[in-house]
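Let us practice reading a record.
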Amino acid sequence: MSTSSTAVQAPPAGRYAIDAAGSSVTFVTKHMFGLGKVRGRLKVTSGVIIIADPPEDSRVEAEVSASSFSTRNFMRDPQVRSRLFLDVRHHPAISFCSESIRQHRGGWSVTGVLTVKGRTAPVELTVAGVSAEGAAIVFRADCTVDRRRSSSGPIAPSTAMRTASR
């Protein structure tokens, strides 16, 4: 369950419910004109992480509220949530479902399918950390999303933090 700069250890086998109140997806993307970075956040609403023995047989499922999209810009955010981009009225959730988990170079990667606005796209998360915080286990993973393939418009999540507890 410990983390180090060289290896990320798998937590104990079990079923971990994602704590929606303590979990979020944060992202960084370039401004439309490429002049600066835009940072934002989406709320995780539900999910489960099932750690198997062996860990390669594990599964991850998570759902994020599309309407929670926020960059704290009152002009940009409503437009991104509109039918032009996320269309939250017709597609209220963004989901991730793992397809494979593998160990590599002292760490783990989770390959799966991201569904945004009813369209699916492959994505690979690199587990950046696993740590215990009281009765919870905190997972941190990084990924790059091709926003043209996933129809996510101007968002490109780069960091996901999922807090899970048994």
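A brief commentary: The radius of gyration is 16 Å.
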